């Protein structure tokens, strides 16, 4: 059944209710990103008040990552099977309650538990929200515009979290935990009114319970192993056995999915080259950025002696550039296509990371740090929306939640893996000297790794440029209009047929 919102979107009319629905979904994504970035600055205050060790503090961050990264696959498919609206609203309510709990507890274990629950709820709101957008807005300019606004809210939330945490932590770390609660409640109330009801997927034949159990367990164990590896050692028996167990579980998971009548992940979607490039690109993009932010935050606060707020303001130009591009990116994607924008974005990211290698113990912000921040901000503005658009194009409505969960899993797993690798490289290059120059020298190999990861993303996405010159693309253009320079968007029925051809790569 087609909702009035979907009809309005397909006709190109953005009604107030359509805008309201998009803003509710953007608010949830904004909160997810805000929550990830806000907690980092507050950790020293939390440790001091609750008397927590460094290893325990780590789990305040890792607990969220574990719940989020481990359950995204399940969250995406659940949205398809049980209804996107229902899953989104229930998970958002849980997120609000967990935020309230996190700001009131006086125990480290309870705080970690609240963070895990928040990550778990975000694992359901993120793919459900993205799939609501992709099933409401038809593929083409309208969807591209909506996704560019949506993904910009995520990047803005991440940047705002850094600034807000610096301000709120001055008063109390509890405010950083409590802030998302009222925003989530307001979004929930608006969502109950605005988000259209969605039907369950009636095409599935039963539930893939074995796949859900094995897939979720393997993702949880993978994220847990990567997060713990820098602490217990990459070559320790525990780490190696855990990776072996993950490999075995993933092998079993693939066999189960191939035989399941209603799989958690239909592996056939990965036959599309565009889909594979989007998933791998997401891992490289977020993995390199998280590693970069980690090292730069240490550099600014530990070596330069900057305050948390000063550090947050140093990152602000990148976030501001992303926010300012929100209304422009949809039209840019329509004009140039996602493959070109991904290549350009990763190229800017590589240059930005490489330029930061020039830093020393007495940098001139405008000449050394600011150019890197602007280049990385421009890269994020190009890459993040393009990845979401490329991953969801050509996918049937009943599988949008699945693909959204898969993309978000790639983002989180990439962030966890490459952050752990960067941390291990920095630790291995530490000389034991506490001199500022020695510490800075230990950071440089980590920055080289970050740059190399971005180069890998550039090479992977560059293979998509050849895709635009294949005979299939010529056929699609010919079906739309004889003049390739001014190819209009196909009508809804034609778009579905074209999407199926494109998805086979």
From TrEMBL:
Membrane topology: Multi-pass membrane protein
TM segment ranges: 21-44, 56-75, 87-105, 117-137, 149-169, 175-195, 207-227, 239-258, 279-300, 306-326, 338-357, 363-384, 405-426, 446-465
Basic and acidic residues composition-biased segments: 493-505
Gene Ontology cellular-component terms listed: plasma membrane
Phylogenetic placement of the source organism: Bacteria, Bacillati, Actinomycetota, Actinomycetes, Kitasatosporales
GO molecular function: transmembrane transporter activity
Ranges where the Major facilitator superfamily (MFS) profile domain occurs: 21-469
Manganese found in the keyword field: no
Keywords: Antibiotic resistance, Cell membrane, Membrane, Transmembrane, Transmembrane helix, Transport
Record region (Disordered): 476-505
Name of the protein: MFS transporter
Localization per record: Cell membrane
Pfam families linked to this entry: MFS_1
Native source organism of the sequence: Streptomyces liliiviolaceus
An annotated GO BP: response to antibiotic
InterPro entries found in the cross-reference section: MFS, MFS_dom, MFS_trans_sf, Sugar_transporter_CS
